[in-house]
Amino acid sequence: MEIAENVDHGRAIAELKELAELTGGPEGARRVCWTDEWAKARRWLREKLDEIGCEVETDEAGNLWGTVRGASERAVLLGGHIDSVPNGGWLDGCLNTIAAMETLRVLAQRDELPVTVRLVDWADEEGARFGRSLLGSSACSGTLDPDEVRNLKDRDGIALPDALREHGVELDRMNESHRQLENAAAYLELHIEQGPVLERLDIPVGVVLGTFGVERHAVSFTGQHAHSGSTPMDVRKDAFIAAARSAIAFRDDAAHRDDVRATTGFVNVSPGIVTAFNGWCEMSLDQRALDAGVISDMLAVAKENSERIAREEGCEVRWERLWRIEPRPFDEHLIEMAEEAVQEVTGTSHRLPSGPLHDAAEMAPLMPTVMLFVKSLGGLSHTKEEDTPEEDIALAVQAFYRLAVKTVGWVAGGGGRR
């Protein structure tokens, strides 16, 4: 399929700014899913899709679809999410939706597409209100268990099912959205990197190898708290010290491995007063790697280190799994096509894994999937300071369009999921 050069990256950037003006402000984006601001952004997006002339519908999970029919029902999906975290940046999520819309807009002008092309704006990628990320895409992929999220509440005590109902979504019907994937052959997504790698390399756009697998645990140490003035150092059973030493051990093990992550995100102590050392300490450990064997070994080493350190500090340790997801590698053929598209536009490319999760992780087990990353200044995201140079956004939109065109041709020739 011939690649036209009339994708309008300037229009895409203007629409990004228009959306930021509509649902942003001095403190950042306000498009938290299942809120009025998100609904306002959704109406804006739907109006834009109506102008393109494509079919527009909302599925049982609240995901918004825009479809341009081709000669074949086999479909290339262009994914994104317009929701944001509170006080978020102007690009996280909505860049992929707007780049996909610009791509769809150009493809819709062709006399006939060999296959169908569909934009999907996934509902609640961020999980910012109820703490469950990838809600809409997991419902569509079939991995959402409604009972696991039924009792979730926001900070005001509003239950997730009630909030969904306000926006026309019934929790127990969300998985019916899986019908949308009946003819899906491939999935493409563009996102800001949210990290510093591309900026360090001075490369505007990179190709994503897959999303990290995640092992997330709460690790609790139990010793004995006592008075900070009367207890000699050599007889203390200080749970915080055991946790702190373990956190350093977790970090050091990850530092000696290639491209993995280990993070202690929260620490809770008891009694938590200045005149006593702590007899109980709980902390989180979030471990990520692209290789399932590597993340399994990281977990085993972390448990061994925590048990050794706990014994040395006179404490006991207990592990509780909070959540896990296996690594989701992307399709090798699409990775190659993505790299080709990026090199054609920028002259260079780089392959890198994604530490953050994306909706693409829900699609990867079901169909050939790939993502592009565009440079993030300072590696910042989920903050109003998030930014990417406009010239790099322009290159990313062009590269994404070229990738979409190549993928349409590949699917038309028999590639992708059948």
CATH architecture identity of the largest domain:
3-Layer(aba) Sandwich
Structural category is alpha+beta
CATH H level, superfamily name of the largest domain: Zn peptidases
The CA-CA distance between the termini, in Å, is 20 Å
Main sheet attributes: strand count, strand direction, barrel closure: 9 strands, mixed
Q: Give the fraction of residues assigned to helices.
A: 25-40%
Question: What's the number of domains?
Answer: 2
* Cα shape: elongated
Outline the fold blueprint.
Blueprint: H1 9-23, H2 36-52, E1 55-58, E2 64-68, E3 72-80, H3 94-107, E4 115-121, H4 135-141, H5 146-149, H6 160-166, E5 184-192, H7 197-201, E6 205-211, E7 213-222, E8 226-227, H8 239-255, E9 261-263, E10 267-270, E11 276-277, E12 280-289, H9 292-312, E13 316-325, E14 328-329, H10 332-346, E15 351-354, H11 360-363, E16 369-374, H12 390-412
Parallel strand pairs: 3-4, 3-5, 5-16, 6-15
Antiparallel strand pairs: 1-2, 2-4, 6-14, 6-16, 7-12, 7-13, 8-11, 9-12, 10-12
Helix pairs in contact: 1-3, 1-12, 3-12, 8-9, 10-12
Tell me about this structure.
Helix content is 36%, strand content 22%. The chain folds into two domains: 9-211 and 328-412, 3-Layer(aba) Sandwich (Aminopeptidase); 213-325, Alpha-Beta Plaits (2-Layer Sandwich). The model has no long low-confidence stretch (mean pLDDT 96). The protein has twelve helices and 16 strands. The strands form three sheets. Strands 1, 2, 3, 4, 5, 6, 14, 15 and 16 form a nine-stranded mixed β-sheet that branches. Strands 7, 9, 10, 12 and 13 form a five-stranded antiparallel β-sheet that branches. By secondary structure, the chain is α+β, with helices and mostly antiparallel strands. The radius of gyration is 23 Å and the shape is elongated.
